[in-house]
Amino acid sequence: METHYKARCNLYPREKDVFRFPVPDDKVKWSVDFPEYKPTNFTSSKVLSKPGTEKKKLNRISHHGKYEVIDGVPRNPVGRTGLRGRGCLGRYGPNHAADPIVTRWLRDTNGDVIKDGHGKPVLEFVAIQRQDCGEWALPGGMVEAGEKVSLTIKREFGEEAMSYLEASDEEKNKISEAIDDLFKNGLEVYSGYVDDPRNTDNCWMETVAVNFHDENGNSVSKIALKAGDDAVGVKWVVLNKDIKLYASHSHLMEQVATKRNASWERPSSEQMQKT
Ligand code: RP5
Ligand code: MG
Ligand code: MG
After folding, report:
1. 175 pocket-lining for ligand 1 (C-beta < 6 Å)
2. Which of 76, 83, 224, 227 meets the CB 3.0–4.6 Å disulfide criterion with 234?
3. How does pLDDT run across 75-85, given as a tens digit for each residue?
């Protein structure tokens, strides 16, 4: 992650009157002098009212190695965000999440894979609409204390894209089976800092993003998607460079396109008509 943009959004997420100190592009790096920099210190009351959780066995290690701790608090490794404190994030330093990226090839009505003008096949992926901000995103979530990333990936996909928490016991078994089957051969596409709007100077999101690809269109494509938990919508989205996604999820999707040798172009309306 070279720099961050969403982590410098003016109004802090989920708040009405918490604004960031404006940080121009050339003042993001801590190594650049910025004597006027006086960011507000903000930690949401929800975070402050959760005492004792620090004792849990949470992974405090960054994917980027050692981070600086200044005056007892970790420093965002990418740079200034315009806000100090924990904001609405639970931990100082890295807050670990995991993102499942479920993909299939976009096919025409005959079942043939659609290709872009350069002959590259076009991907579709499962996106959810976040309840907190309405933006479309990967169905990811926080790694719970002591939880393996592989389990977080399955759990979050079940909760957000298959409505596991709202399902009956019988449905729950079916969803778990489908997910176990689908999430067997993952390709890790990214691990590290996420340009999340909740980041502050002292805490930030990191993720492990794993791609599960349905090459032949007969596994993932069969599952029933249903938004649940903190998702209010779920759908297959045609991948291209113009899609607007939450945090730096578009950057994660670019990694998938590169690794799968898939198209990163917007498909023409002619191509879309064939689907
Ligand atoms: C993003 O926040 C991660 O990439 C992940 O998708 C998500 C985790 O937070 P919640 O969805 O649990 O809010 O930075
Ligand atoms: Mg979740
Ligand atoms: Mg989530």
Report:
1. no
2. 227
3. 999 999 999 99
